[in-house]
Amino acid sequence: MGAEYRLNRLFNARSGRCLDVAVDHGFFGEPSFLIGIEDMPRAVRLLVDAGPDAIQLTPGQAPLLQSCPGRDKPALVLRTDVANVYGRPLDRHLFSRHFPDAVEQAVRLDAVAVVANLLHLPSRPNLRERCIEAVMHLRAACTAFAMPLMVEPLVMRDDGEAGYAVDGDPVRIVSLVRQARELGADVIKADPTTPVDQFHRVVEAAGGAPVLARGGGKVDDADLLNRTAALLEQGASGIVYGRNIIQHRSPGLITRALMAMLHDSASPGEALGLLAASDA
């Protein structure tokens, strides 16, 4: 008991959905991830003004959000682990590490949840084992401090360019999501399936835990909004988008358009109309 009180601040009271904007990319040491967030104080200010439900940050950057005055700022979701699986070419030694005092930091920072990866990479069972150990540790600490645990099951494949890319295979995603739920996840952050109309299987595998869909790489506005609508129709409880917001020509406008879809049942066309009207 108690974790649900924090989740009440993550999910919109009217719609029961959540837009979490991920700006924790600098944690991973990949230069290409810094586009749009080179100036983190500015990026956080823009997002606070846009008013998403939550912003996902690291312990080193979370004070940028929590030092903002007032009670109406977005909730904090605290990233607790770092891995080097996104580089091209990959390092010879791959790792995943989490803060040993992650939940205590989250309590001090007034976070509404902590988030950690559950990685599945080809021929890298040691990384999956490391993630399982981290999630188990976090689960125990989260229970002690009534802190919700968000797990990010991430199925990857060889991309043919000495790196890894997201694997949208529904079978693989479903099995990893189920494992995350079995490990005690309160919230699941999962990749969209390919095709998207199989995403209901991911929601089912989560066993009642809310599922937030990841955004992935940058796409154009129409694709993003249409995919968002499809994910919501499949039962997603919200979205966690990063580059599709922070690298947008207007992060504030795309945030408001997505919020209209999540909380006011706007169609993709209506959301595009909001973007067009604001651009005029």
Describe this entry's structure for a reader:
This protein has 280 residues and is an alpha/beta fold. It has a single domain (3-279), classed as TIM Barrel (Alpha-Beta Barrel). Helix content is 41%, strand content 19%. It has eleven helices and eleven strands. It has helices spanning 3-10, 40-50, 62-66, 102-108, 125-145, 170-182, 199-205, 221-233, 243-246, 251-264, 268-279, and strands at 18-22, 54-57, 75-79, 81-83, 96-98, 113-120, 149-158, 164-166, 187-190, 211-214, 238-241. It has an eight-stranded parallel β-barrel with strand order 1-2-3-6-7-9-10-11, surrounded by seven helices. A two-stranded antiparallel sheet has the order 4-5. The longest helix is centred in the middle third of the chain and has 21 residues, at 125-145. The protein is globular, with a radius of gyration of 17 Å. The N and C termini lie far apart (49 Å).
Strand and helix layout:
Blueprint (H helix, E strand, L loop, with lengths): L2 H8 L7 E5 L17 H11 L3 E4 L4 H5 L8 E5 L1 E3 L12 E3 L3 H7 L4 E8 L4 H21 L3 E10 L5 E3 L3 H13 L4 E4 L8 H7 L5 E4 L6 H13 L4 E4 L1 H4 L4 H14 L3 H12 L1
Parallel strand pairs: 1-2, 1-11, 2-3, 3-6, 6-7, 7-9, 9-10, 10-11
Antiparallel strand pairs: 4-5, 7-8
Helix pairs in contact: 2-10, 4-5, 6-7, 8-10, 8-11, 10-11
